[in-house]
């Protein structure tokens, strides 16, 4: 899809699929994340290209699509004098839930985000972290198939942020609702999401499962007790690429599969008699992927 | 003693029916009406609507009281109480002049309360992320304002009709009664639609409630007062009064009841009823156009 606002191109030939699970929409401010979410809700029309959400075109089937989406926007001030439960119930009702069901689910959703005791408090009296959780509860209460969370940790302190990320993980993994969460913070997406779409300047620079993008089967990282240089020479002699830094070796191979690589390293360790303090797969972090760095 | 403790209530998926756009609109109407009347809100927010409603109904209560008193005096045979009472009480159309202030104040404060905060806080984005779209959202909001405004444009007239009828000074016969009732509802609805549309148009231009209310009152008192003055002084044709929002609604009411208004547009031959109706329709249409223009391309997700 391409989307322009006047002379500004917000999305440029962005093309991707989002599979079930928790997907991070990652990019700096102005990358087009919010615009993309708006388009998923059928609020903006693409200048070119096509978008399908939950198997439907959000422009043609807007009410049907939006009834099944829970949305928590980034910049949103909650009505200060309204009790949290009334706010959540109202949003559940406008998503098509019968009033009795909406009332019951509003309470349940607030309990679920750990605001059960505070559900009758006016929104203006809640802390920033609590208000963000109210927004999550309001998005959850209608029983959506898909949750769109736009920068849900915005303005939160580290502890509130951890708590919110934990809730989002639970929504995706325990409750089984598909989630798309936008963020400009790499570690947030890395900690929460199974998949990622990385946007930069309106272009998709990477997309897919985090495990695939990381390439976590590429090699091994060893921390050893003993002669690391001799071990490295032996591994190189067996055709592996090795870098050594003090007692740490990064071992990789483009020709061997994971099992063969593990067996070969095990054998050389046994032959050399070097002790192993740590052995783990070499993993590219999301920042490596975004910046195009190797592991 | 049981030591059982509920650690988490869990989350239930919802696979039941969804009620669609009409139900969403009903919810918005109910929620908006409750907000405007201060229901489920702190006590301070209830003061204004209660005051205005009291202001709208007090004249009616006084007029009905006068009729009741006249009837009692008549029964005592001391004075011709009924005839005396009828000197003081207004016709159904003239009642609207007594509740003008309540209607204008209500419209001036209700419409901004309904539209402005949604844009300022971003609630509009949440509404449009539901099955509602811009037009169904606006229709629901307009319905809510209309319903609330009808409480002060239709309600007092209906109470007056019931009061007069119970005291034997109402319309004679069911047909006449039904016709009067119809006129009260029609006229009240007309005034409410006119005021609602204009107030919503102004509220769509600014996200500041106070600015919208002030603009609405300025339009009624300032511009309309100036126009009224020009017409009264004979410096402008009576037809300029069609732009006068403070008198046009009451011209509409008097024409609906077929009574001479005695106010600015009193030259019935110069300004026929059809022109009054057309002017009201034009005001409503222009206001709807302004609201539609403002909301058509509004970015709601930032």
Question: Explain this structure to me?
Answer:
The complex is a heterodimer of chains A (295) and B (302). With 295 residues, chain A is an alpha/beta fold. In chain A, 38% of the residues lie in helices and 22% in strands. Chain A has helices at residues 33-40, 62-67, 84-94, 99-112, 128-140, 158-175, 186-192, 210-214, 228-237, 258-272, 286-291; strands spanning 3-5, 8-11, 22-26, 69-72, 146-150, 178-183, 195-200, 203-209, 219-225, 241-245, 248-252, 275-281. The two termini of chain A are 31 Å apart. Chain B is mostly helical. Helices cover 72% and strands 0% of the residues of chain B. Chain B has helices at 20-37, 44-76, 81-88, 92-98, 100-121, 123-128, 134-153, 155-166, 174-205, 209-232, 248-257, 273-296. The radius of gyration of chain B is 23 Å and the shape is globular. The chains are: A alpha/beta (295), B mainly alpha (302). Chain A binds chain B through residues 34-35, 37-38, 41, 43, 62-64, 66-67, 69, 71, 73, 75-79, 81-83, 86, 90-91, 93-99, 101, 105, 108-109, 111-112, 116, 122, 138, 140, 142-143, 148, 150, 174-177, and chain B through 8-21, 23-24, 27-28, 31, 40-42, 45, 117, 120-123, 125-133, 300-302.
């Amino acid at each position: 899809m391409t989307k322009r606002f006047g002379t500004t191109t917000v999305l440029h030939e962005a093309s991707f699929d989002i599979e079930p699970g928790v997907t991070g929409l990652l990019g700096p401010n102005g990358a087009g994340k919010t615009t993309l979410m708006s388009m998923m809700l059928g609020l903006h029309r693409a200048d070119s290209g096509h978008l399908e959400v939950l198997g439907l075109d959000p422009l043609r089937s807007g009410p049907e699509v939006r009834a099944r989406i829970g949305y928590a926007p980034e910049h949103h001030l909650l009505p200060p004098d309204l009790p949290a439960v009334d706010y959540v119930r109202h949003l559940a009702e406008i998503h098509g839930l019968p009033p009795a069901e909406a009332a019951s689910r509003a309470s349940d959703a607030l309990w679920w985000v750990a605001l059960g005791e505070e559900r009758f408090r006016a929104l203006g009296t809640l802390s920033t972290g609590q208000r963000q959780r109210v927004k999550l509860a309001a998005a959850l209460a209608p029983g959506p198939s898909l949750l769109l969370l736009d920068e849900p940790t915005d303005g939160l302190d580290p502890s509130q942020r951890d708590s919110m990320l934990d809730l989002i993980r639970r929504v995706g993994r325990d409750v089984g609702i598909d989630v798309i969460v936008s963020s400009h913070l790499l570690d947030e997406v890395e900690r929460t999401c199974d998949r990622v779409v990385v946007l930069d300047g309106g272009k998709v620079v990477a997309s897919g499962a985090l495990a695939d993008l990381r390439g976590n089967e590429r090699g091994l990282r060893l921390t050893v007790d003993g002669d690391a240089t001799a071990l490295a020479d032996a591994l190189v002699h067996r055709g592996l690429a090795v870098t050594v830094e003090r007692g740490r070796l990064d071992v990789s191979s483009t020709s061997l599969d994971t099992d063969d690589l593990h067996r070969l390293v095990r054998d050389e360790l046994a032959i050399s008699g070097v002790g192993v303090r740590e052995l783990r797969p070499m993993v590219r972090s999301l920042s490596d992927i975004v910046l195009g760095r190797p592991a | 003693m049981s030591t059982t403790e509920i650690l988490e209530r869990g989350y239930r998926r919802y696979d039941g029916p969804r009620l669609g756009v009409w139900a969403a609109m009903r919810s918005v109407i109910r929620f908006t009406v409750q907000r405007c009347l201060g229901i489920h809100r702190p006590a301070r927010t209830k003061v204004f609507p209660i005051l205005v409603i009291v202001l709208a109904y007090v004249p009616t209560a006084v007029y009905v009281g006068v009729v009741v008193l006249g009837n009692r005096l008549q029964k005592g045979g001391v004075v011709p109480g009924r005839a005396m009472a009828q000197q003081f009480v207004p016709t159904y159309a003239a009642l609207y002049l007594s509740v003008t202030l309540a209607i204008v104040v209500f419209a001036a404060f209700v419409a901004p309360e309904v539209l402005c905060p949604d844009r300022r806080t971003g609630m509009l984005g949440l509404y449009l992320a539901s099955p509602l779209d811009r037009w169904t959202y606006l229709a629901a909001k307009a319905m809510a304002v209309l319903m609330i405004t009808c409480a002060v444009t239709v309600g007092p007239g209906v109470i007056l009709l019931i009061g007069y009828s119970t005291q034997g000074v109402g319309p004679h016969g069911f047909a006449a009664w039904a016709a009067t009732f119809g006129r009260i509802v029609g006229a009240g609805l007309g005034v409410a639609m006119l005021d609602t549309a204009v107030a919503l148009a102004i509220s769509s231009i600014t996200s500041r409630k106070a600015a919208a209310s002030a603009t609405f009152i300025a339009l009624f008192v300032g511009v309309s007062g100036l126009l009224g003055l020009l017409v009264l002084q004979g410096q402008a044709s009576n037809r300029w009064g069609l732009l006068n929002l403070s008198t046009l609604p009451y011209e509409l009411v008097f024409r609906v009841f077929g009574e001479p208004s005695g106010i600015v547009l009193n030259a019935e031959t110069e300004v026929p009823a059809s022109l009054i109706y057309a002017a009201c329709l034009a005001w409503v249409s222009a206001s709807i156009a302004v609201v539609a223009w403002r909301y058509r391309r509004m970015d709601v997700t930032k």
